[in-house]
Amino acid sequence: MSGQDPFSDPFASQQSPKGIPPLGPPPGQPGQIGPPPAKKGMSSCLIAAICLFAFIPILGVCAGLLLPAVQAAREAARRVNCSNNLKQIGLALHNYHSAYQTFPPAYTVDQNGRPMHSWRAMILPFLEQQALYEQIDFNKPWDHPDNQAAMSSAVSVYSCPSTVVEPNYTTYLAIDHPNGVFSGSRPTRINKITDGTANTVMVVEHDSGFAVPWMQPQDIDMNQFLQPGIASTAGGHPGGGHVLMSDGAVQFLTHSASAEIRTSMVIMNEDEGGIAPMLDATSTEAVPGDLSNTGDLSNTGDLPNMDDTAVPADGISFRHRPSGARFVRPSQEWSLLTGRAAASVNPIANAVLLHNGNDNHRERIGILIIESLADISSEPIDMKQLAMNLAESMEMENKTIEDIEEADVNGLSVIRYVVAGDVTDAGRLRYCCLVFEKNEFLFQVIAFAAADDAEADDQHFRSIHQALTFASSP
């Protein structure tokens, strides 16, 4: 952190109040009493005090604006890590299929049909865990004393950073169903998934109450998956959880997804027509739900004080009613999410835009915060100084403020600042942020990604800025 107080007043006068001369005659001139000298410093002292008390609430609001964003950014970073874990698991499952022409069974069994080892143990060589794989005696049960060392080992890819469990436990579980990809000791070939690999789920994340040792041959059944918001896909993330599809894609399934939708996701050879419209987050076909002004963010695409407008050819459009700002998803790779926790406790329209990673780059995440200037200050705000204060108040280790400059985005004059630093559970991140005012509203656009994968002038940061910056209605 910078040594500068993040709550220091960027707008107060820097002039120190002058001292007040003492009453009475000057030294060496006794006896003469007259009117006291004029208190030259009193007026400036009073003005400074008034300014200080007037701007303390402003600084508090500005600090309050950033804190939810930082909290949301940390959860968003953990969410990205969780998604990446499942992507690695999906890649390992497909590499296993390439090697053996079948996906692994949910578990292996002994001669009496008793479960021995989980699919998670069988794909270890394809997760760069060959040494750990070789420690396991697959002829003995997973919890046999000879397998204790391997069972006690932590496998980071099996751990969701938003869920607190023992190091050797996992919340990534398959759905064991007779007509699913995982069905007991029966392996499955990919050509048996006639309902489409993009429509059929393989692995889901659970909450910590259902965590198991990663070596244990235990997953979930259909009944557990059909309980929206209770057990199924109730990971450590607000609003839902990740699911790994059979094509290796990772989606985010909302708690509101119905039992019918969930059933169609599990059945691998039934033509249900797909489930993409019910998926938000990384889904490529998310649709807006019933948008209202109640702040209820339970529906896909909901944002407080947001209206849906005509859907352009290149994506979904939303409008923030109070400010008149319009935001457009720039391509089919984008989806709008909602930050339930932040939005429910702050009078802020908080939108998160998650850009899918690909072979060339990892995820980029953007957070939008809108606040009425009437609630902050009746006086003009020095945006560059505000950007500096926001940058300095970001809580990161080994932080570097790399740049603060004026820029033009969507024809708007904005202040752009770039900060890099180490964030717990997320590694070193680079933030490329904007702050500007429009129509008596203050806008903050916070975009970030892994520092080793994103330069300050990263083109995907620019895409986020263009998507989340105020644009005129069509």
Automatic annotation (TrEMBL):
Residues 71-208 form the DUF1559 domain. It comes from Rubripirellula amarantea. It comes from the Bacteria. The chain crosses the membrane at residues 46-70. Residues 1-16 have a biased composition (Polar residues). NCBIfam families: pre_pil_HX9DG. Residues 1-37 are annotated as: Disordered. This is DUF1559 domain-containing protein. Residues 19-37 have a biased composition (Pro residues). Keywords: Membrane, Transmembrane, Transmembrane helix.
